[in-house]
Every structure is written in structure tokens, then in C-alpha cells.
Write a structure and sequence with these properties.
Blueprint: E1 17-21, H1 49-60, E2 66-70, H2 80-88, E3 95-100, H3 105-114, E4 119-123, H4 129-136, H5 141-154, E5 158-165, H6 174-180, E6 187-192, H7 200-206, H8 211-219, E7 223-224, E8 235-238, E9 245-249, E10 262-265, E11 270-272, E12 281-282, H9 293-303
Parallel strand pairs: 1-2, 1-10, 2-3, 3-4, 4-5, 5-6, 6-9
Antiparallel strand pairs: 7-8, 8-9, 10-11, 11-12
């Protein structure tokens, strides 16, 4: 497949990175996302493996070289390993990673690595067992910590931890989190809580600015790291006495959208130009056969004219996003 014009928008940004959700289902009940657990609907037919691979090939032909598999919890799909192995056969995809809550990770780390995965993001919202259960609805912290070690032992090149900043819940653990990466070659990223349609009161109670983390990092001798050209949304900090790094993902900060380099496709095959956009553009009908890939690529390029310059979170507008599990964050 010959490369077409790289995916770009009207503001000079290019998009080599695709966050691809393969299921909305999650087996956790995180208070900031699915406090009542996942609710099945009659419209939950997710893309099958063939549709997912056609989508990945189409994006690869448009210059996409990085794909992150997300959910919900992507690893609960029975064909997760098959999906990974098939995407890994697409030569243009240089980096395939996934985000997980760490479910059964100690037992599965080697199988993920053997399937070709080299980069993993793991959600860890507390290092205190009781608080971890309060936030996630599960008592799996010990399993999760063993899973992190298993990934390092298996040989994963990149191990990242995602921690949602929650005032009154885990904000007293900043020092514990900082200490956690001292002797581990991992990247811990603090993510500001984002407002969605179903968490307005929760957001008002628990939102904490990433500035609080930056202040603590600087006080402990950490320094801002120069941003790489292909970097994600995190502003990273380093300390010469620590093996790990710490990043801040602050969507409410000035110019956050300026470095946007990613698009999102939902588990039902809709292209989302922004995490907090006003809806997705259906691509599912163009994923039914291999001879539709060129038409699919033309559709993706055409839709880029609708991408706006920035989200409207500062105006208390979170679009139509009901909760983050519906698009993979």
C-alpha cells in the first residue's frame, strides 16, 4: 500500500498516533469513570478483529506509526493477543502499545511481550491498599505491583504508570509516588481529572491542578525535561538521582492542544477528532472488505477539516463524552 498524504489538520498539526479502543467494557468500578460499573447496552457490537486490522492498515498507509490499544479494559477481549499479533505484522507500525488496569498482569506479562508488545501503560491510582480499593472498587493493588515487576522482568522497553490526581483521595500520596520511581526505570504520569457528562459533582469535589505536583517536584530537586518532537501530552520531569521519570498531563493548562498528535477511534468504529469533541464520525461501513481501504483513507483525510484548534474544557464544555471508558481516554 503506497503512503498517501500524511494526516494533518488546518492548523499545521500532523497525527502519526492513533488511540484505538477495542471494547467499552471494563471490569473495574473506578469512582472517576465507572462508579456503578459497566452497563451493557443493546448497541454494543464492537469491531471484530478483521475490521480492526483493516482500520490499522488504513491509518498506517496515511503515515500512522504508533497505535495504542485501549478500552474499557482491552485485555478482557478473548482475541486480544490475536489482534496484537496481526497489527504487529503491519510494517509501517513501529510502536504498538496498550493501556490496562493490570488485570491478571503477573500471569499475562510474558504472553503480552511474546505477542510483540513492548510498551505498556498501567493505571495505578493509589499505592495504599485501602485507598486503591476505594477508588477502583477492587483489592488488587498487590497483584498490580507484582504485574509491574513482571513487565520489567519480561523485558518491556517502556513501562508507564497512569495516576489520576484526586483531591482528598490520593493527593497526600505524592511523595510516595515520587519515591516509587526512584529505583525503577518507569515513567509515572499524573493526570488531571477531566470533567465528563456524568461526573460534574465528582469533578468539583476532587479536581486538583497538576501545578501542585510540579511544585512538589521542584521542591524535591526535579527538573523539567526538554520536550521531544514526537512527545505525547505529558510534560516530563527528571532527577539525576532517580531511575524513573514523572510526567504531568494537564488538559486545563494553557496551549495543551497545541502539541496534539493523536486521533481516536471508538470500539464501534467511529473516528473522534478530539477526546472531548461533539461526537464521532462513523467509519464502520468502510471496514467490511479489504478493497475499501483506499475509500476509508480518503474519508479520514476529508474529515480532518472538521478538527478544531482546541477543546473547550475551560468553558465547562466536555462535549458529549459520558465517561472516559467509552473512548479509551
Amino acid at each position: 500500500m503506497d503512503n498517501k498524504t500524511a494526516i494533518a489538520d488546518s492548523f499545521g498539526r500532523t497525527f502519526p498516533y492513533l488511540r484505538l479502543s477495542i471494547t467499552d467494557i471494563c471490569n473495574y468500578r473506578c469512582t472517576y469513570c465507572l462508579p456503578d460499573g459497566y452497563r451493557k447496552s443493546q448497541h454494543n457490537k464492537f469491531m471484530n478483529k478483521d475490521e480492526i486490522i483493516r482500520l490499522a492498515k488504513a491509518f498506517a498507509g496515511l503515515g500512522t506509526w504508533k497505535i495504542r490499544l485501549t478500552g474499557g479494559e482491552p485485555t478482557i477481549r478473548k482475541d486480544f493477543i490475536d489482534i496484537v499479533s496481526s497489527i504487529n505484522e503491519i510494517q509501517a507500525i513501529k510502536k504498538l502499545s496498550f493501556t490496562t488496569n493490570g488485570y491478571k498482569l503477573p500471569d499475562r506479562a510474558n504472553s503480552y511481550y511474546n505477542a510483540g508488545l513492548r510498551s505498556i501503560n498501567i493505571s495505578v491510582d493509589s499505592l495504599n491498599p485501602e485507598q486503591f480499593k476505594n477508588i477502583t472498587g477492587h483489592s488488587r493493588l498487590n497483584e498490580l505491583l507484582k504485574g509491574i515487576d513482571a513487565c520489567l522482568y519480561a523485558g518491556f522497553e517502556t513501562v508507564k504508570l497512569n495516576t489520576v490526581l484526586l483531591k482528598g483521595l490520593n493527593d497526600k500520596e505524592l511523595d510516595n509516588f515520587i519515591d516509587f520511581v526512584t529505583d525503577k526505570p518507569i515513567s509515572l504520569r499524573f493526570i488531571e481529572l477531566m470533567r465528563t457528562l456524568d461526573n460534574q459533582d465528582y469533578f468539583n469535589t476532587h479536581h486538583l491542578s497538576g501545578a501542585a505536583v510540579v511544585e512538589r517536584l521542584l521542591a524535591r530537586g526535579w527538573k523539567k525535561k526538554n520536550r521531544a518532537i514526537d512527545a505525547g501530552p505529558a510534560q516530563e520531569y527528571i532527577n539525576n538521582n532517580c531511575k524513573g521519570t514523572i510526567g504531568i498531563i494537564a488538559p486545563y493548562s494553557k496551549d495543551f492542544c497545541k502539541s496534539c498528535n493523536r486521533l481516536r477511534v471508538s470500539a464501534k468504529g467511529a473516528l473522534h477528532l478530539c477526546l472531548f469533541g461533539e461526537g464521532g464520525y462513523l467509519l464502520r461501513h468502510l471496514l467490511q472488505s479489504d478493497d475499501q481501504i483506499e475509500e476509508l483513507q480518503d474519508k479520514i483525510l476529508t474529515l480532518m477539516k472538521f478538527k478544531v484548534e482546541a477543546h473547550f474544557l475551560h468553558d465547562n464544555n466536555s462535549g458529549v463524552r459520558e465517561h472516559l471508558a467509552s473512548i479509551g481516554g
